[in-house]
Q: What sequence folds into this?
């Protein structure tokens, strides 16, 4: 097949995980150019070689900009876009003070459409091409999000948030309606173009055992869907879960005993895990999602990235908008680096970039189609200017290799570093 575009720069692809490599940089390869057509990556190689093979392609030359797979954000709440950076509360108070009142507004489909588009504009400007989002309890919020993503040709995952207790009037469903509304959304959206559905019980404190059981039954009926929820984010939350589920062995057991633990389970935060929980999560090869700006912003704790990776866990990286304080995966990588430093285990730039692309794609079980620049993958790309501000430019000018150069952009970059974004083989 002939390519439509040849995009040249420093094209970064991963051959394997930089957490497995002897030295993290050995996991990565730099190429001169990537050829894309019909929404797919057709070839990587030298610019001259690709031009010879694809003489009709338009060449888009990005000089020495760094070209990566588009960022993948493994855990977000698009409905919290307008309340990001709300001051001074910890998790439960933050939910009650800021989040629930805002989520109430999504009963209005026009508002949901507005925020879905605003969120996708903001994240595209930050180089994020795929995300896994919670909706609100309103099925219309998921319709709004999927409709907006479909119009942009974007690969996204989302689900209706289910809550039938410990949430205000107007923000509760029932075990039956949560099941039926989620099933109807799966029928309407799951597998349509690039969209897929995640069954979404918010977290154990806001679901009765009956609702968790209904969610488990729904997942058993739709095993190809992801199931996303929150796990062990704050110590107060864990204590509350103990009082709500006195017979549970631990927090994870409140999911496990209702059929909500599995390989396609995606567990946000997962900071304060018991040994049994870690063992079970690894045994079933479930995904854990590190949300570092959220974990520091809401005061939750320090995710054990090094320990979990060494034990072979499947881990993704996420903003957790709007508990997280940024829409940017660059800022999120910087926060992951800082959390690693506080634990005495700093992450290499190659590991940070891998987590923000392939790691998150693996967590969402999408690594066969996105998250790397490799032949056959979908053409979602981000082009990074490694000298986007004077502060970054003067530091990267001193860099001795690509890792030092890109690390300055990871630590200090923002949407000004995003030179171009390609979604499904098309430029924005
Ligand atoms: N736990 C339950 N709901 C939420 C949420 O919306 N954000 C975060 N950070 N944690 C949660
Ligand atoms: Zn969350």
A:
């Amino acid at each position: 097949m002939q390519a439509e575009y040849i995009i040249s720069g420093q094209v970064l692809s991963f051959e394997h995980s930089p957490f497995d490599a002897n030295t993290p940089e050995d996991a990565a390869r730099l190429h001169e150019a990537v050829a894309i057509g019909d929404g797919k990556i057709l070839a990587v190689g030298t610019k001259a070689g690709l031009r010879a093979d694809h003489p009709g392609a338009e060449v888009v030359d990005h000089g020495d900009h760094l070209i990566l797979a588009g960022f993948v954000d493994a855990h977000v709440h698009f409905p919290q876009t307008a309340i990001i950076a709300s001051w001074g509360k910890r998790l439960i108070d933050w939910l009650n003070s800021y989040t629930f009142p805002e989520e109430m507004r999504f009963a209005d489909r026009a508002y949901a459409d507005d925020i879905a588009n605003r969120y996708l504009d903001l994240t595209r400007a930050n180089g994020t091409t795929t995300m896994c989002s919670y909706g609100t309890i309103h099925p219309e919020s998921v319709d709004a999000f999927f409709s907006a993503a479909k119009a942009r040709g974007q690969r996204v995952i989302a689900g209706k948030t289910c809550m039938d207790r410990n949430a205000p009037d107007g923000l509760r469903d029932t075990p039956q309606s949560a099941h039926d509304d989620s099933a109807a959304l799966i029928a309407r959206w799951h597998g349509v173009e690039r969209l897929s559905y995640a069954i979404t019980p918010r977290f154990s404190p806001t679901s009765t055992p009956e609702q968790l059981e209904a969610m488990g039954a729904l997942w058993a009926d739709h095993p190809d869907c992801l199931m996303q929820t929150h796990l062990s984010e704050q110590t107060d939350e864990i204590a509350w879960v103990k009082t709500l589920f006195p017979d549970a062995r631990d927090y994870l057991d409140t999911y496990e005993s209702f059929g909500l633990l599995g390989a396609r389970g995606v567990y946000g935060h997962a900071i304060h895990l018991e040994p049994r929980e870690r063992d079970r999560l690894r045994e079933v090869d479930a995904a854990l999602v590190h949300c570092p700006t959220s974990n520091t912003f809401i005061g939750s704790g320090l995710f054990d990235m090094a320990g979990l990776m060494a034990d072979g866990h499947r881990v993704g990286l996420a903003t957790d908008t709007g508990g997280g304080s940024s829409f940017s995966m660059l800022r999120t990588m910087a926060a992951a680096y800082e959390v690693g430093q506080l634990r005495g285990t700093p992450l290499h730039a190659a590991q940070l970039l891998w987590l923000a692309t392939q790691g998150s794609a693996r967590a969402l079980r999408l690594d066969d189609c996105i998250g790397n620049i490799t032949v056959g993958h979908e053409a979602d790309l981000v082009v990074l200017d490694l000298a986007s501000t004077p502060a970054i430019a003067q530091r990267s000018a001193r860099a001795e290799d690509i890792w030092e150069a890109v690390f300055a952009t990871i630590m200090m970059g923002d949407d000004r570093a995003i030179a171009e974004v390609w979604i499904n083989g098309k430029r924005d």
Summary: Residues 5-69+371-427 form a domain with the Urease, subunit C; domain 1 fold (CATH 2.30.40.10).
